């Protein structure tokens, strides 16, 4: 199934970009939801002030990716950001066996059931428990386990750069950067057009989709998670699907999560 989701030769079509010079790099590739809808995929690497590197939602580990990460520092953390974003953590763990692997509850069992590579998880986030990775990581990042999200989403704030890093919490389609080296438009295809219309950050469509759909794992829990994230200081949002929101991300988040933030105040 993975062959229908990701490109056969990711090195040819991956865009490696410094979002924040010497600190944050992104690895953007084509990705087809259900093998047909162009949503794009993105991994993010953050060089921490300690010199270690934290990788979020890792994509294909090409030679160029290895070289880029090697120039940033020692990979110390590898995060599968929800139940869906774990395809490449096996190869990354093999390449960086000393890195701590982070993920949500249920993912180790899912990977075993799917006969994925065996990966030891150092930190597993669980609902209604105060999470902690370690002192080095906790100094650099705030994070929230959005267990109310249907995919059991992990969301991170890189405090020094005011950057929110997320997977399926917010989409920012079309996936222009992620399809920019494929020679084809990121908006072609009827299913892509329909899904793209539902995942715009402006208007009401994505706002309603989150309220009626993606928050369905635990509505009350989702409300509280959005209220917590709303208390963070961020401007940039790096999503896995669609283009990076370079500035104004807090306002976009507040628009899309307005009903959840309001509901948290009354619960």
From TrEMBL:
Originating species: Polyplosphaeria fusca
SUPFAM superfamilies: Metallo-hydrolase/oxidoreductase
Family annotation (Gene3D superfamilies): Ribonuclease Z/Hydroxyacylglutathione hydrolase-like
Designated name of the protein: Uncharacterized protein
Lineage, opening ranks: Eukaryota, Fungi, Dikarya, Ascomycota, Pezizomycotina
